[in-house]
């Protein structure tokens, strides 16, 4: 063994006084695999560990902090230390944590106190993580200590939920049985967090609280009281029995809240909705667990209290999402149908088809807050759906069309208008619509192109286009100003005087009050546009609007950032590939936008790669179905004349054209051959013989040319032997470039592109 | 890595592999019709049993391969063909960008089964719920069911000589009790025996150059372009109907190939370069990039532009050895009269075909119940796999061949001899759940009150470590960065940093002096504190005693 490394004991000695760079160097050095040596174990490494333990036990916070980090690094990189001393280190760290937790308030009052807790908890978590899947180690070092660790963490979780809850979540999931004695205590802590402080927690912590709450239900119920499913009764007890009760209790909380909405909107107008509400799941067994949520206090005289409805729904959705989206050690039963109907009802809570209750119609303030909360209530449904779809994918396929039509309810319409979207409201619901588009994109990726509810799509396109414009905050102000101009001048001047100082910026630099869209927003919107363009041929107006949007935004982003973001490139590609009803391709525009972007796809579109000597089948604009019935002589003559007219065309094309024509003549009508196979075989042979002879007679020149052509090519392309290998690319390129080629061909045959359209119509008439 | 070959005959089922000689015989396995066997996930094999209303589920994953039936799923009727719609593209946490491992309980979304009478059953596997039954989906027995484009569409072919494309959502949707197909292809005149779809499919049906190859007993092979947006005819009709957004409806027939024999099966090169046609008179290979004399190559499936009404081309296939005269001279002239020369790979009564992953080996199942693995280039049979039964004569014809690559575990493992530790315990554990029983009654989708329970398990997230915890093993630099930021917090605090400097007294005089002054200050402060406290204590003590006395008085009075 070479001696060319620093002895662990030296490092250990230095550790005591190290700080800053020195400390980091020691940590980095300790990662080295040279210390993983059994010979060192007894002497050097145990000395190191003793030093670390000393640091951890030291009364100095900084030493403690150092000790924690050193033990984490050592345990992570040295399996020897982990297995021999891991338990010791864990115990030391834990005992310090317990001690510090005892004096929580005094520790936290010093400014580094939080850091210290952070270090203690996270290093403990890391060591627990390291120990977790090693059977002996976890049995001997971890599990016995957990009994002490868990209560400490639970105590700490009251003060530092953000810090401790992730650790508790892991322990709860992995060592459920060990956790069992502490469940009730933890539940009390969590419920108090949910009850009192929920709104003041960060959204991450909120999710953590809900997830921990859900994981409390991992514990299995001993007694078998699952008689809800008769058909599967022979399955004794499902592992998810407790989980399911938890889930169903949360789900059943929705109904009473929704019934509150009946006080606002006149549900009686809609029988279907009433049925739906009636069918919502309710809590049959009165469960104590539910009662922890305080009752809502709503007062129509204090309209702001109505906001409690969406807030409570948001809490319920958070908890439900935790129940249905957490990884579990066993499969769980998810009542997708009930969840779906909850969402559906939530989305129906809108003024679109339901009138307000009569007695509420006069109070302006009340109506204002009702107008505000209704979309928020709907939004909770959308959030829930979004989570369900993202986790369960196709499993909800049977609901997807329903979801799309419910989303239509979310799009606000102008009152007393004929399906005009109220863009003012749309503007204020931007974040909500972001979620809507995410949901729609996820749904669309599972659906095909035939939908019953395409009207939503065109409405959503309008919304997307509107919201993608930069929004200025002062817009409404200017509108008012314009209105004021018509009024008396004195009034206006008065106004200006009052607010002169404050308003000057607005009028001189209105551009500073503009909201810009984030790139995330654009990504989502572009995805939606791509899906719509791919699945449907849109009517002209929205199509052109999308084109305009993509081109202007790409240009703007290019000017701002120097490149075009990927989602815009994808959108441009898609627009080029699907020109819709437009006659003009945006290919040149897209390419000039992406001039130096080195885009493979557009490169292929401009330079279709085809193998040397490939025979193309060209379409013949004049060669319509009806003429195929004509005499063979005519055909071949026409073929000739055609060929002559193309005499300036490149040799390739000509030759292949000829071949093609011949072939077409040989087999005039494919459908017929199929329908009368026996007859045809005879006819087929006879004709083909005639054909060949006639063809040879009438198109002598042509034949000669072919020969020339082929020889030319052989001399040119000698590498064609490898053609099979290339074909993958070729298939693509050929397919993608179809349009291109066709266009080119048409250009030298008949210059006007419109002609192809005419042909189409001709064809249609034929049909 | 190796490729697993699963094949069933009328009376047996076998799991073998292409490159090694291991072979397992599935017990109690008998199949009646082709395509009656489907792989479910990487774990299960579903085999619809002959003459029994039963699906046998076999476990075929890795080391848990078993010969015995793992589970039996009773059915309402005898099924002929099976297919599953995978629940892929589950965008786990696409919002938070966290990957999840596949859970242990991971079933596809749908199980489709067809009966002799052309009825189509659609079950949801996660719940066993019978979502829909489409009677008379075909007028006669269905010969193959296949889901394409990530399960968005389903194609069925039948003995009624039709090929039907369905939209999956129509088949399961709550609002749609009479699902209408997207389109019906009725170009064939006799039963359609098999079809294949390009393995590479785009994201949408509209832009994909995806091809559909159908073969039939009428001795034709037809190739369709599945991209629907191209055909404008139907779209115009729709516009007349006043639909706002629209799309074309029918796939275009690109080419028809005729053979002298009725075609029983087809297999497609993974990259669509060639197709292999199985007939009672042997197996033929047709290069779809057909080589003419010299360097000329024809793309037989070249579609013309979107704007033309194209009459598809018809070719007849001629076996190479039967072509009179020289080999290559005739190719051009034969092509010009619409004849293509193709190679005969094997002279046997083919019933089933499947191609290997790299497209060089063809598994040919014949009517005698053996599977020949033939190299396509040399037309040589490399190996023949036969069922491990004593009575070879009664095996019957091969009904299914499934080929899928798998990892051979021993080769990839770090420590030889070790089992796949964690995986073993988890997938053998008692937690693994049986597949829910398939129900017989159609689920009432209209009734909103039903809870529609599905069994589902969410997989573990990829890295359990919270990014904020920054497990040092994954990202040491990040961890170090974390340490630095924390240390700065300690450094800013006078007391702590001074404590740190205490240990450095021997080396640093200035700091020690600083320390000294700091200490002195502290001591005086502490002394003052103690004084104040003792004072307060005395006061309290006095009050306490006073109160106690009063209390005593009161007690005494009583």
Task: List the main descriptive attributes of the protein structure presented here.
heterodimer; A: 767 residues; mainly alpha; two-stranded antiparallel ribbon; 36 helices; 69% helix; 1% strand; globular; disordered C terminus; B: 558 residues; alpha+beta; nine-stranded mixed beta sheet; 20% helix; 32% strand
Structural overview:
- Chain B: WD repeats lie at residues 135-167.
- Chain B: This is Pre-rRNA-processing protein IPI3.
- Chain B: Belongs to the WD repeat IPI3/WDR18 family.
- Chain B: Residues 523-550 form a coiled coil.
- Chain B: Component of the RIX1 complex required for processing of ITS2 sequences from 35S pre-rRNA.
- The complex is a heterodimer of chains A (767) and B (558).
- By secondary structure, chain A is an all-alpha fold.
- Chain A is built from 36 helices and four strands.
- In chain A, strands 2-3 form a two-stranded antiparallel sheet.
- Residues 223-229, 485-497 and 617-767 of chain A have low confidence and may be disordered.
- Chain B has 558 residues and is an alpha+beta fold.
- Chain B is built from eight helices and 32 strands.
- Chain B has a nine-stranded mixed β-sheet with strand order 16-17-18-19-25-26-22-21-20. Chain B has a four-stranded antiparallel β-sheet with strand order 3-2-1-31, with no helix packed on it.
- In chain B, β9 and β10 (120-124) form a beta hairpin.
- In chain B, α7 (494-503) crosses α8 (509-557).
- Chain B is elongated, with a radius of gyration of 36 Å.
- The termini of chain B are far apart.
- Residues 230-247, 305-309, 411-431 and 494-511 of chain B have low confidence and may be disordered.
- At the A-B interface, α2, α4, α7, α15 and β1 of A face α1, α2, β19, β24 and β25 of B.
- β1 of chain A pairs antiparallel with β32 (453-456) of chain B, so a sheet runs across the interface.
Layout of secondary structure:
The complex is a heterodimer of chains A (767) and B (558).
Chain A: H1 8-15, H2 20-30, H3 38-57, H4 61-77, H5 79-102, H6 104-109, H7 113-131, H8 135-159, H9 161-174, H10 176-179, H11 183-197, H12 203-215, H13 241-252, H14 254-261, H15 271-279, H16 308-325, E1 332-335, H17 336-348, H18 364-392, H19 397-410, H20 423-428, H21 430-444, H22 454-468, E2 471-472, H23 475-486, H24 489-508, E3 514-515, H25 519-535, H26 540-561, H27 566-577, H28 587-593, H29 600-606, E4 614-615, H30 632-645, H31 651-666, H32 670-675, H33 677-698, H34 700-716, H35 723-749, H36 754-766
Antiparallel strand pairs in A: 2-3
Helix pairs in contact in A: 1-2, 1-3, 3-4, 3-5, 4-5, 4-7, 5-7, 5-8, 8-9, 8-11, 9-12, 11-12, 12-16, 13-16, 15-17, 16-18, 17-18, 17-19, 18-21, 19-22, 21-25, 22-25, 22-26, 25-27, 26-27, 30-31, 30-33, 31-34
Chain B: E1 2-9, E2 13-17, E3 23-26, E4 37-40, E5 44-48, E6 54-59, E7 71-74, E8 81-85, E9 110-114, E10 120-124, E11 129-134, E12 142-148, E13 153-158, E14 163-167, H1 168-172, E15 183-185, E16 192-197, E17 211-216, E18 220-225, H2 232-240, E19 252-258, E20 263-268, E21 274-279, E22 282-287, E23 289-291, E24 297-299, E25 313-319, H3 329-336, E26 339-346, E27 350-355, E28 361-366, E29 370-375, E30 380-386, E31 398-406, H4 409-412, H5 421-428, E32 453-456, H6 476-491, H7 494-503, H8 509-557
Helix pairs in contact in B: 7-8
């Amino acid at each position: 063994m070479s001696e060319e490394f620093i002895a662990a004991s030296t490092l250990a000695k230095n550790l005591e006084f190290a700080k800053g760079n020195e400390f980091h160097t020691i940590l980095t050095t300790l990662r080295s695999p040279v210390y993983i040596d059994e010979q060192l174990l007894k002497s050097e490494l145990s000395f190191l560990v003793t030093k670390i333990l000393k640091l951890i036990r030291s009364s100095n916070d900084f030493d403690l902090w150092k000790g924690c980090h050193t033990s984490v690094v050592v345990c992570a990189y040295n399996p020897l230390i982990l297995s021999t001393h891991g338990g010791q280190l864990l115990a030391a760290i834990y005992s310090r944590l317990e001690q510090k937790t005892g004096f929580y308030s005094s520790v936290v009052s010093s400014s580094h106190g939080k850091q210290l807790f952070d270090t203690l908890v996270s290093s403990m978590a890391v060591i627990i993580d390291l120990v977790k899947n090693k059977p002996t180690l976890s049995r001997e070092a971890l599990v016995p200590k957990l009994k002490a660790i868990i209560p400490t963490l639970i105590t700490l979780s009251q003060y530092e939920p953000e810090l401790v809850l992730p650790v508790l979540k892991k322990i709860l999931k992995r060592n459920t049985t060990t956790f069992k004695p502490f469940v009730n205590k933890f539940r009390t802590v969590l419920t108090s967090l949910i009850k009192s402080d929920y709104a003041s927690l960060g959204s991450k912590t909120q999710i953590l609280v809900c997830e921990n709450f859900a994981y409390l239900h991992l514990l299995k119920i001993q007694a078998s009281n699952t008689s809800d499913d008769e058909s599967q009764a022979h399955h004794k007890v499902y592992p998810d029995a407790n989980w399911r009760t938890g889930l169903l209790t949360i789900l059943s909380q929705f109904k009473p809240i929704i019934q509150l909405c009946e006080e606002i909107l006149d549900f009686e107008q809609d029988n279907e909705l009433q049925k739906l509400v009636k069918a919502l799941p309710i809590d049959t067994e009165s469960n104590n667990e539910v009662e922890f949520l305080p009752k809502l206090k709503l007062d129509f005289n204090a309209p702001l209290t109505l906001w409690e409805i969406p807030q409570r729904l948001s809490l319920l959705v958070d908890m439900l999402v935790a129940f249905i989206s957490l990884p579990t050690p066993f499969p769980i039963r998810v009542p997708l149908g009930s969840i779906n109907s909850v969402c559906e009802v939530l989305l129906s809570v809108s003024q679109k088809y339901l009138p307000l209750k009569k007695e509420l119609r006069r109070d302006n303030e009340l109506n204002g807050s009702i107008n505000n909360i209704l979309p928020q209530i709907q939004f909770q449904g959308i959030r829930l759906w979004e989570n369900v779809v993202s986790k369960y994918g196709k499993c909800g396929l049977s609901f997807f069309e329903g979801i799309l039509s419910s989303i239509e309810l979310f799009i606000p319409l102008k009152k007393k208008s004929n399906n005009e979207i109220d863009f003012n409201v749309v503007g204020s619901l931007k974040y909500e619509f972001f979620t809507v588009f995410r949901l729609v994109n996820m749904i669309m990726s599972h659906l095909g192109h035939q939908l019953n509810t395409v009207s939503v799509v065109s409405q959503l396109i309008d919304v997307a286009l509107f919201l993608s414009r930069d929004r200025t905050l002062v817009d409404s102000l200017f509108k008012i100003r314009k209105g004021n101009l018509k009024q008396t001048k004195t009034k206006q001047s008065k106004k200006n005087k009052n607010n002169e100082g404050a308003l000057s910026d607005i009028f001189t630099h209105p551009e500073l009050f503009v909201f810009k869209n984030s790139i995330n927003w654009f990504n989502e919107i572009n995805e939606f546009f791509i899906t719509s363009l791919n699945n449907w041929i849109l009517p002209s107006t929205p199509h052109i609007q999308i084109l305009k949007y993509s081109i202007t935004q790409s240009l703007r982003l290019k000017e701002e950032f120097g490149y075009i973001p990927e989602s815009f490139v994808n959108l441009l590609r898609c627009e080029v590939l699907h020109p819709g009803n437009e006659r003009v391709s945006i290919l040149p525009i897209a390419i000039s936008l992406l001039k130096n972007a080195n885009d493979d796809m557009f490169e292929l579109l401009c330079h279709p790669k085809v193998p040397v000597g490939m025979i193309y089948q060209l379409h013949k604009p004049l060669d319509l179905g009806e003429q195929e019935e004509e005499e063979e002589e005519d055909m071949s003559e026409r073929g000739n004349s055609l060929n002559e007219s193309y005499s300036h065309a490149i040799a390739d094309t000509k030759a292949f054209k000829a071949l093609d024509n011949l072939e077409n003549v040989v087999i005039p009508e494919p459908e017929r051959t199929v329908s009368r196979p026996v007859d045809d075989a005879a006819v087929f042979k006879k004709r083909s013989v005639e054909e060949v002879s006639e063809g040879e007679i009438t198109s002598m020149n042509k034949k000669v040319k072919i020969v020339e052509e082929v020889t030319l090519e052989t001399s040119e392309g000698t590498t064609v032997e490898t053609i099979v290998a290339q074909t993958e690319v070729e298939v693509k390129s050929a397919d993608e470039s179809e349009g291109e080629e066709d266009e080119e061909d048409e250009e030298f045959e008949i210059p006007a592109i419109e002609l192809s359209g005419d042909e189409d119509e001709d064809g249609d008439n034929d049909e | 890595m190796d490729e697993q070959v699963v094949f069933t005959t009328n009376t047996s089922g076998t799991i073998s592999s292409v490159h090694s000689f291991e072979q397992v015989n599935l017990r109690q396995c008998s199949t009646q019709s082709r395509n009656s066997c489907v792989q479910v996930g990487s774990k299960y094999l579903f085999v619809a049993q002959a003459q029994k209303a039963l699906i046998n589920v076999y476990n075929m994953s890795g080391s848990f391969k078993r010969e015995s039936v793992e589970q039996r799923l009773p059915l309402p009727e005898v099924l002929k063909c099976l297919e599953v719609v995978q629940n892929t593209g589950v965008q786990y946490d696409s919002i938070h960008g966290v990957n999840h491992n596949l859970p242990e309980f991971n079933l596809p979304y749908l199980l489709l089964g067809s009966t002799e009478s052309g009825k189509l059953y659609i079950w949801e596997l996660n719940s066993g719920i019978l979502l829909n039954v489409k009677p008379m989906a075909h007028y006669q027995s269905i010969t193959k069911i296949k889901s394409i484009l990530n399960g968005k569409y389903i194609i069925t072919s039948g003995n009624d000589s039709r090929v039907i494309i369905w939209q999956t959502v129509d088949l399961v949707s709550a609002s749609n009790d009479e699902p209408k197909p997207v389109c019906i292809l009725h170009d064939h005149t006799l039963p359609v025996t098999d079809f294949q779809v390009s393995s590479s499919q785009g994201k949408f049906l509209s832009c994909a150059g995806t091809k559909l190859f159908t073969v039939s007993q009428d001795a034709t092979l037809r190739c369709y372009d599945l991209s629907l947006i191209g055909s404008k005819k139907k779209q115009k009709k729709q516009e007349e109907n006043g639909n706002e957004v629209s799309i074309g409806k029918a796939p275009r027939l690109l080419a028809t190939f005729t053979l002298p024999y009725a075609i029983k099966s087809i297999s497609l090169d993974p990259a669509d370069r060639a197709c292999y046609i199985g007939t009672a008179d042997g197996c033929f290979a047709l290069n779809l990039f057909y080589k003419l004399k010299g360097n000329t190559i024809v793309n037989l499936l070249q579609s013309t532009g979107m704007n033309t009404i194209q009459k598809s081309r018809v070719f007849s296939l001629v076996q190479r050895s039967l072509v009179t005269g020289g080999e290559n001279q005739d190719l051009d002239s034969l092509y010009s009269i619409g004849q293509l020369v193709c190679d005969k790979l094997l002279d046997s009564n083919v019933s089933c075909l499947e191609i290997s992953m790299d497209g060089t080996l063809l598994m040919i199942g014949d009517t005698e119940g053996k599977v020949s693995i033939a190299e396509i280039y040399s037309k040589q049979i490399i190996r023949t796999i036969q069922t491990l039964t004593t009575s070879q004569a009664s095996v019957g014809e091969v009904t299914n061949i499934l080929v899928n690559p798998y990892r051979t575990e021993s080769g990839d493992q770090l420590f030889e001899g070790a089992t796949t530790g964690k995986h073993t315990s988890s997938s053998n554990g008692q937690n693994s759940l049986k597949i829910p029983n398939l129900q017989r009654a159609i689920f009432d989708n209209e009734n909103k009150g039903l809870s529609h329970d599905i069994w589902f398990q969410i997989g573990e997230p990829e890295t359990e470590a919270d990014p904020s915890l920054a497990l040092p093993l994954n990202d040491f630099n990040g961890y170090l960065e974390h340490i630095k930021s924390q240390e700065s917090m300690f450094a800013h605090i006078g007391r702590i940093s001074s404590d740190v400097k205490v240990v450095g007294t021997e080396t640093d005089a200035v700091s020690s002096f600083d320390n000294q002054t700091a200490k002195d200050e502290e001591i005086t402060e502490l002394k003052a504190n103690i004084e104040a406290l003792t004072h307060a204590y005395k006061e309290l003590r006095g009050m306490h005693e006073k109160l106690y006395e009063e209390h005593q008085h009161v007690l005494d009075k009583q």
